[in-house]
């Protein structure tokens, strides 16, 4: 069984000053994936990235709250993480195993940080990883446009680290 993992769809990232590429389309895709997971009985996990006290994303900061546009159903597992890799120091692997999951579908933000490191770590933790090609995003950087970052990671991660699938082609 595969679980849906949504990374860091937080107010500070989605609605912050550096708007992510295709934010509204991504939210629609994530809502569709959540509905599909729900209908199939697949677990849904949402990670919130929390920083140290005194940082803009310190515990309790409104910037760490999940965006209201996500259509949560009430049975999701919401957890906090302090590292880009959602498996590091979170207990995520244990939670997945307790629910009978041997695979994880990775989505969310930011492509070059948390999405990348979580895809790479999933296999190391013994899980099959699927990256939804149109289910993750980031903002432009000084060196690269977001579109290039997303395309690069879809190409780089495919194969050795995960399968890359369009949302419309995935079923739980």
UniProtKB/TrEMBL annotation:
CDD domains cross-referenced by the UniProt entry: nicotinamidase_related
Keywords, comma-separated and alphabetical: Hydrolase
Keyword DNA-binding appears in the UniProt entry: no
Family matches, as PANTHER family: PEROXYUREIDOACRYLATE/UREIDOACRYLATE AMIDOHYDROLASE-RELATED
Name assigned to this protein: Isochorismatase family protein
Gene3D superfamilies (UniProt xref): Isochorismatase-like (3.40.50.850)
GO molecular function: hydrolase activity
């Amino acid at each position: 069984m595969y679980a849906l993992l949504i990374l860091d769809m937080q107010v500070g990232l989605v609605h912050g000053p550096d708007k992510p590429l295709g934010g509204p389309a991504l939210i629609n895709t994530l809502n569709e994936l959540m509905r599909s997971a729900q209908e199939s009985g697949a677990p849904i996990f949402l990670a919130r990235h929390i920083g140290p006290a005194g940082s803009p994303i310190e515990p309790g900061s409104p910037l760490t709250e999940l965006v209201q546009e996500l259509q949560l159903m009430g049975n999701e597992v919401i957890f906090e993480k302090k590292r880009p890799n959602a498996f590091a120091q979170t207990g995520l692997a244990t939670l997945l195993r307790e629910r009978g999951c041997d695979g994880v579908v990775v989505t969310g933000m930011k492509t070059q940080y948390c999405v990348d490191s979580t895809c790479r770590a999933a296999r190391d933790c013994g899980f099959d990883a699927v990256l939804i090609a149109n289910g993750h995003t980031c903002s432009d950087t000084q060196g690269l446009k977001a579109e290039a970052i997303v395309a690069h990671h879809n190409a780089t991660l495919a194969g050795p680290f995960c399968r890359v699938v369009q949302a419309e082609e995935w079923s739980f």
